[in-house]
Amino acid sequence: MAVSDHDIVILSGGTGGAKLARGIADVAGPERLSVIVNTGDDIEIYGAHVSPDPDLVSFWLADTIDDRGWGLRGDSFAVMDALRELGLEVWFNLGDRDLAWCLERSRMLAEGVSSTAALARLNEAIGVGARVLPMSDDPVRTWVRTGSAGWCAFQEFMIRDRAEGLIEGLEYRGAEQARTSTEVLAAIAGARVILIGPSNPLASIAPILAVPGIHEALRTAGAPVVAVSPIVGGEVLKGPTASFMAFGALECSADGVADFYGELLAGIVADEDVARLTTLQTDTRMDDAGSRARVAEQTLSFAEALAG
Q: How many CB atoms lie within 10 A of CB 106?
């Protein structure tokens, strides 16, 4: 296969997609990788624009992710402690260096720099060679409705409310008006393979697909689209994916994931066979560098074989 710059695209939400991105960067090289990331979880807090999923991917690629799975390794929390001392309820923890990163993003956005360009500048500063692309430069926010709390923004549901309560509604507010960036469309058009990371299909990937133009670009792309299932051994490894799948009337299995993505998929990577779809059946756990590299290499080889 002739290697070209940025010929691998990953759609990513949270931890699962970020781990796959890191694995692909390790086995194929970051210069081949573009990651289109969900921004529906973004939040304005502490005077800063926080973009959890793009930052998570960035920190994984820079090898600066903390062992707890979010934020920067070895970060301090003096600002959060000081806010608590002032009597504020601090339900969203942000490390000091992480806050500095988000404040610098806010400064650039206030000066009219796009979200895409701002993140590119931040990633250049920490040595990330892959392209990490927000799904849109326009604001899109995921809102969740539960019977106990009513409608609330995604971070409030996930962190403040600990993802408790039966999910009764899900909206991607602003998606219909959002514009797809030229960088995202160019990445999809130039891809040899397109991977959907093992992220929550409804909460992490659906907001990306809801931005006008992205679903159609994927559907008509000259590259096969391959999903990696976030369901392992019939269970979700992290987060409330099962609750979201239940809300979508989807089986919490690789079959349910395939049903959600439907005609977009040319294949799926899962630890169980999906009868109606070409399947690479393998252990999809990515608990360490070795397993991330194995899953990435197997997934990439599978997708490249589908590309022909």
A: 17
